[in-house]
Amino acid sequence: MKSLIHNFPNQLQEALIIANNAQLTQPTVAITNVIIAGLGGSGIGATILQGYLLDKSELPITVIKSYTCPASIGKSTLFIACSYSGNTEETVMTMQTAYAKGAKVVIISSGGKLIEFAQQHKLDNIQLPGGMPPRSCLGYSLTQLLQVSSFFNIATININEELTNSIHLLNTEHENILTVAKAAGAMLYKRLPIIYTMSNEGVVIRFRQQLNENSKMLCWHHVIPEMNHNELVGWANVHDDAVVILFRNDNDYERNNIRYSICKPVFEKYAHAIIEINSKGTTDLQRIFYHIHLGDWISIILSELNEVDAMNIDIINQLKGHLANN
Fold this sequence. Notes:
By secondary structure, the protein is α/β, with parallel strands linked by helices. It folds into 2 domains: 2-164, Rossmann fold; 175-305, Glucose-6-phosphate isomerase like protein, domain 1 (Rossmann fold, 3-Layer(aba) Sandwich), CATH 3.40.50.10490. 49% of the residues lie in helices and 17% in strands. Helix 3 (40-52) links the parallel strand 1 (33-37) and strand 2 (61-64). The chain is globular and about 60 Å long.
């Protein structure tokens, strides 16, 4: 896993080549809504994309992580199915429902049932390199989601410029990223991470999932300002094992910065420590990729400190095995 995370900038470069060679076709009717299906490491790119496009797309974008499709699916729906293996049963089922309802279906996968279905029914598909853990392939999947969004005019994205600049940023900041990751990992070791953000929730969900799978740690996340309306009240006692980690951006909304400045003394009083992770970059996508990569490195540092195998997900494989027999 460590080598895969180290290779993330190169993965983005390869993903850009795949995106530029994607063979997509225009829909027969105008797209009025977008639905993206994907779970776990295969679906986190959809959650991040949804947050990224919140103030950039005029079309409603829904991300589903279940067996149930929204009733709004129809012929004017762009339905994107994301499953790295191509066999995620929830995604396969919702894709089949969307196809039956006449939606414009695009599949992003490395193979499996989804690619087989796409080839059988001549559906648009982008095939990814196989043989890796889905969570290590976010660079591939998120880049293809950006490409699909651009092609279907969901939003205006200069994908070549954005990816090229993001890759340069990550390569330039490599040593600094490692330094920050090691310091954060040391502070989070044998602690309970409580993760907050004031912007794209998908980025901190990614970090939470990486701590779960790579570091074998439980943690939780929340978003400012929403946590000001509920979770803040829970900070009423000392939590010696808790470390607050805040993902920050230079362009975070000013009212949220004020909210955090008010909350910070509460965290300082009741938590063991506070870590602020400031992004770098000049665009939203650059900041997103920076935070993703830094969070991934923190999870690897913690896996080493915890002396666990970052690749091991035996409990998930056991679950899938039981489901296959029922």
